[in-house]
C-alpha cells in the first residue's frame, strides 16, 4: 500500500513504439502525499496538450473589461463625481461674504505687473469698492487715471473704472480696509519707513513680495512690522503659482494666504477668492515665505540649464534637488514640509522653473547662453528678486547649517566667482550619497 502513496508519473510514449503498456516509474524518495490523488503527466510526442491556463485562438483581449464591468466602473466614477459636486455646492452656499460686503477701500502699494493685476482683480470683486494704487511714476499714474491702462506693464488690458492711482501716500492710505504690498523686497524697508506715519496700526498688510532682504536676511513678515515700528501690524503672506498676465486674463489660478491669525487668513480668503481664483489658507508663514523666496533662486538655476542646452534629464534632476534644498532650510527655520510640497512650494517652483514667463528664469537662460549679468539686468524693466536673494539664501544656509549645493552655485554665479559651465561640472562631481 505504501507504494501507492508515492507520486507516480506515467509517460505515454509515441504510438509507434511496440510496447503495449505505458512505462510507469516510481520515485520512492519523494515525500509521500497520503491524502491526494495520483499525479499523472501525459506527454504525447508530436501532439502537445493544450494548456488550460492560456486562451486558445481567441480574439478577445484578456485585459478588456466585460460590458457589465465597464458599466459598473463608470457608475462608480459618476457617483464619486456627483458626491464631489454636491459637497462643493453645499460648501459654496455656506461661504461667508460679509468681508467683501463691508470692505470699502483697498490700497495697493506699487505699480508693477503683479500689483496692477491684483488691483484689477480686487476691483472686479465689487464695483462699489475703491481701489487706490500708490505709484511713484507720474506717467503710470496719469495712464491709469486718464485712460484706465497701466501703459508700462499692461498696455492692452483695460483696468476697472474703480481703480485709481496716486503718488501721495496719505491719500492712498486714508480709510483703507486692506493693503496689498507689491513693492520689491530690497526696496521695501525704505519705502515703508517713508509712509509709516500714514499707516493705521490696525491695517492688515497682504504681502505680494517674495524674497529675502540681502543684508539682514529678513522676510517680509519681519520687514513690514519693523519698518512701520509696529510689531502688531496685521500681516498676511499671499503666494502660489500665479503669473500676473494670466491673472489679468482671469485664467484659473490657485494661491495660498498665510497668517498666524486664523481669522485674518479667512477674511483675506473671502476678499480675494472668486470663480477663477482659489485661495487656500495656512498658518505656516515661514514655510510660505521661504518657499516663495528660494524658488526665485532655483528658477535662475533652471534657466541656466536651459540656456546651456543641458536637456530635460538635467532639468528634472536640478529642480528635484532644489526642492529638497528648500525643504531642508524651511524645516530648519520652523516651516512645515507639507507647505513645501503644496501650492506655495512645489506649485510655485514648477511654474517659475518650467515656464519662460518667469523673469528669474529668463535671467538664468541668458546667463547660460553666455551673457553677462550686468548687461542682463540693465536691459530689464522689472526686478528679478532671485538675483538679490541668492546671497541671502547662502547666509541663511550657513546660519542653520544646511548644505545647499545648487542654490550656493547660483549665488557664486551671481557674484561672478563661478561660470555656469564650471558650476555644472562641480555639481556633477559631488559625492553620490543616499537621497534624503
Automatic annotation (TrEMBL):
Chain intervals for the UniProt region annotation (Disordered): 50-69
Domain of life: Eukaryota
Top-tier EC class: oxidoreductase
Keywords (A to Z) from UniProt: NAD, Oxidoreductase
Domain Glycerol-3-phosphate dehydrogenase NAD-dependent N-terminal: start-end pairs: 105-264
Catalytic activities: sn-glycerol 3-phosphate + NAD(+) = dihydroxyacetone phosphate + NADH + H(+)
EC numbers on record: 1.1.1.8
Pfam families referenced in this protein's UniProt entry, alphabetically: NAD_Gly3P_dh_C, NAD_Gly3P_dh_N
Domain Glycerol-3-phosphate dehydrogenase NAD-dependent C-terminal: 284-424
Family membership noted in the UniProt record: Belongs to the NAD-dependent glycerol-3-phosphate dehydrogenase family.
NCBIfam families named among the record's database cross-references: PRK00094.1-2 (NF000940), PRK00094.1-4 (NF000942)
Annotated PANTHER family: GLYCEROL-3-PHOSPHATE DEHYDROGENASE, GLYCEROL-3-PHOSPHATE DEHYDROGENASE [NAD(+)] 2, CHLOROPLASTIC
Name under which the protein is recorded: Glycerol-3-phosphate dehydrogenase [NAD(+)]
Organism: Gossypium hirsutum
Amino acid at each position: 500500500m505504501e507504494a501507492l502513496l508515492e507520486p507516480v508519473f506515467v509517460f505515454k510514449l509515441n504510438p509507434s513504439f511496440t510496447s503495449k503498456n505505458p512505462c510507469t516509474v516510481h520515485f520512492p524518495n519523494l515525500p509521500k502525499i497520503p491524502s491526494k490523488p495520483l499525479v499523472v503527466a501525459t506527454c504525447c510526442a508530436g501532439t502537445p496538450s493544450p494548456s488550460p491556463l492560456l486562451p486558445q485562438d481567441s480574439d478577445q483581449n484578456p485585459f478588456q473589461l466585460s460590458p457589465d464591468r465597464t458599466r459598473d466602473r463608470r457608475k462608480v466614477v459618476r457617483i464619486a463625481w456627483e458626491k464631489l459636486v454636491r459637497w462643493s455646492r453645499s460648501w459654496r452656499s455656506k461661504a461667508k461674504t460679509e468681508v467683501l460686503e463691508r470692505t470699502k477701500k483697498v490700497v495697493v502699494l506699487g505699480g508693477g505687473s503683479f500689483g496692477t493685476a491684483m488691483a484689477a482683480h480686487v476691483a472686479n470683486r465689487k464695483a462699489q469698492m475703491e481701489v487706490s494704487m500708490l505709484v511713484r511714476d507720474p506717467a503710470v499714474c496719469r495712464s491709469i487715471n486718464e485712460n484706465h491702462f497701466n501703459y508700462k506693464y499692461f498696455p492692452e488690458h483695460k483696468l476697472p473704472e474703480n481703480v485709481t492711482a496716486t503718488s501721495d501716500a496719505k491719500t492712498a492710505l486714508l480709510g483703507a480696509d486692506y493693503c496689498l504690498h507689491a513693492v520689491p523686497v530690497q526696496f521695501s524697508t525704505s519705502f515703508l519707513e517713508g509712509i509709516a506715519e500714514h499707516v493705521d496700526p490696525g491695517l492688515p498688510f497682504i504681502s505680494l513680495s517674495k524674497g529675502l532682504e540681502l543684508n539682514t536676511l529678513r522676510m517680509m513678515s519681519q520687514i513690514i512690522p519693523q519698518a512701520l515700528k509696529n510689531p502688531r501690524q496685521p500681516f498676511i503672506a499671499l503666494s502660489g503659482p500665479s503669473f500676473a498676465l494670466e491673472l489679468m486674463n482671469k485664467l484659473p489660478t490657485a494661491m495660498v494666504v498665510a497668517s498666524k491669525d486664523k481669522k485674518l487668513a479667512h477674511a483675506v480668503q473671502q476678499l480675494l477668492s472668486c470663480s477663477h481664483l482659489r485661495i487656500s489658507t495656512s498658518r505656516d508663514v515661514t514655510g510660505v515665505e521661504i518657499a516663495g523666496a528660494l524658488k526665485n533662486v532655483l528658477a535662475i538655476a533652471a534657466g541656466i540649464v536651459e540656456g546651456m542646452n543641458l536637456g530635460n534629464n538635467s532639468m528634472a534632476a536640478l529642480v528635484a534637488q532644489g526642492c529638497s534644498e528648500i525643504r531642508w532650510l524651511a524645516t530648519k527655520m520652523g516651516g512645515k514640509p507639507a507647505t513645501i510640497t503644496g501650492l506655495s512650494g512645489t506649485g510655485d517652483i514648477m511654474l517659475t522653473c518650467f515656464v519662460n514667463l518667469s523673469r528669474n528664469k529668463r535671467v538664468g537662460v541668458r546667463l547660460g547662453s553666455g551673457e553677462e549679468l550686468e548687461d542682463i539686468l540693465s536691459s530689464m524693466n522689472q526686478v528679478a528678486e532671485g538675483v538679490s536673494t541668492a546671497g541671502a539664501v547662502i547666509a541663511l544656509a550657513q546660519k542653520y547649517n544646511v548644505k545647499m549645493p545648487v542654490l550656493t552655485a547660483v549665488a557664486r554665479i551671481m557674484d561672478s566667482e563661478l561660470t555656469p559651465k564650471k558650476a555644472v561640472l562641480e555639481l556633477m562631481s559631488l559625492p553620490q550619497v543616499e537621497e534624503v
